[in-house]
Amino acid sequence: MRLSILLAALLSIVSFWAAEAADTQPFERGSWAKLREAHAGQPTVIHFWGLTCGPCLVELPHWGELQAARPDLRLVLIAADPLPQDPDRLAAMLAKAGLDKTESWSFTDRFYERLRYEIDPAWAGELPRTVMIDRNGKATVLPGVADLAQVRGWLDAQSKSH
Amino acid sequence: MRLLFPLAALVLFASAAAAQHQHGKPGSAPEAFTAAPAFAPDGTLWLVRPMVDRIVVTRSTDLGKTFTSPVTVTPEPMNLDWGPDARARIAVDPKGGLIVTFGTFQDKNFNGRAYFARSSDGGASFTRPRPITADTTSQRFEVAGIDPTGRVFAAWLDKRNIAKAGAAGRAYPGAALAYAWEDGDAGFGDTSIALDNTCECCRLGLAFAGAGRPAVVFRNIFPGSVRDHGVITFRDATTPGPVRRVSVDDWKIEACPHHGPAMAIAPDGSYHVAWFTDGAARKGLFYARADSADAPYSQPRALSAADRQPARPYLLANGQALHLVWKEFDGTKVAVRWQVSHDSGRQWSAARTVAETEDASDHPLLVADKQRTYLSWLTKVEGYRLIPLGDQP
């Protein structure tokens, strides 16, 4: 009996680890197309950030607040650091910003030219960057720190046009 | 007892993983992937590379075909700066003495420390790395160059004035452009600030307008958080001149471009700058020239189409030839494109691809010996390559 409790405890530790590790998905060649397909037809906000980007880390908690305030915000986070970052540190930063439940991806291929090219050939990698995609697939790019009032306005427009 | 075993194994695994973190094992912490060259007066090619947590130097006497076994510059493991625009560098003084510069991270907030190490025995050994400056706040993007008299000048982006501004209740955007001159065997002399509030995350470009007259190109923060480029030329060794704006790209951004400029000064005293921007006025990679330090810059010339991700320019003046390289991406291959000018940058040869790769790569660099100019490029698939460039395209 005690044995099975211990075993269950052990298994829960292992599965907890597995869940943690699965939180942020590796963003590789082809990931962009998969991501777009998964959200096709639904207004989606994709926010590119990075651990190596100071302004991103200041901005991130504001996205956490917006996410909490707006259940209609379908948010996807992509850590687009030019060098793949430690998943534990990414997870810790997302948790701190209240974004640990949000769909999250992280660049894991050092050939970042290729990853960026799939997303937008003209994007040279500057962060932060936000792309709002409406249900028809029309993208609006907000380079730099996003004006969240603009994001809220966009969300309002999406629900009206529904 | 049998159950304790897997538990113990888990604990062991966790501590092993933690240990790997600290030692920069591949897959945990990012690593720098750079190689920086310098030719010695005797034609030896020196190369400095970060290897996970140490800095090594190798040399080649057959133009990069073979290299000697590496000599380690850092006696202990260090948390090296792996930022995409940072790099360890090497320079050779007129006597054949070597100076290596590199940066480390002090913490997880990217506060850096810039170091240098010297070799006076032909690279057989190096002095223990010493900080370039005494201040411990943060230094990054250090660059060292040797002026025409053999004196070593170093410049970097320094955050010491942020704390001071904060204490006085003032905001301090960006970092400061700091500099120091080497002072004999004692190391670098006092640090001075040439300019406050530059952009904080881009490499610097360095050239010399004459003895004791360095010129530094950098991404500046102009009023309204516009991150366009400026050049400062020193009037003398301790007097930085005014900022000369290279172009009004109007890139207003509160973000980290990680794209620094390149500069060369030709024998006729003309200035040549190449840079990346995503400004309201123009987007992509550009080149401009000025007749002198005080002359206005020409209209920027686009080096490629913005949707080919043109980036990482490098300029080198070698005699009457001015060489320019950059990299761009066509969806499959990264290509290094090359142009040469023989009339002080007024007319350029058609751009030509001189090297390609299909995976990750360092920035393309240029280096020259007495005869020729070479592309120096480290790529994941091909390794290090030194590719001779013609004087004519």
Could you describe the 3D structure shown?
The complex is a heterodimer of chains A (162) and B (393). Chain A is an alpha/beta fold. Chain A is 48% helix and 19% strand. Chain A has one domain: Glutaredoxin (3-Layer(aba) Sandwich). Chain A is built from six helices and six strands. The radius of gyration of chain A is 17 Å and the shape is globular. The termini of chain B are far apart. In chain B, the strands form seven sheets. Chain B has a four-stranded antiparallel β-sheet, with no helix packed on it. In chain B, a hairpin with a 5-residue loop joins strand 9 and strand 10. The N terminus of chain B is likely disordered. The longest helix of chain B has 19 residues. Chain B is mainly beta and 393 residues long. Chain B is built from two helices and 27 strands. Chain B has a domain of 26 residues. The interface between A and B is large, with 38 and 38 residues.
In short:
The complex is a heterodimer of chains A (162) and B (393). Chain A is of the alpha/beta class. Helix content of chain A is 48%, strand content 19%.
Provide tags for this entry.
heterodimer; A: 162 residues; alpha/beta; Glutaredoxin; six-stranded mixed beta sheet; 6 helices; 6 strands; B: 393 residues; mainly beta; four-stranded antiparallel beta sheet; 2 helices; 27 strands; 7% helix; disordered N terminus
Rough outline of chain A = globular
Order of strands, main sheet of chain A, comes to: 1-4-3-2-5-6
Helix-residue proportion of chain A: 40-55%
What is the count of helical runs of chain B?
Answer: 2
Topology order of chain A in helix (H) and strand (E) letters = HEHEHEHEHEEH
The major β-sheet of chain B equals: 4 strands, antiparallel
H/E topology pattern of chain B = HEEEEEEEEEEHEEEEEEEEEEEEEEEEE
Architecture of chain A in CATH? Answer: 3-Layer(aba) Sandwich
Unreliable spans of chain B: 1-26
Instruction: Give the % helix of chain B.
Output: under 10%
**CA(first)-CA(last) distance of chain B:** 75 Å
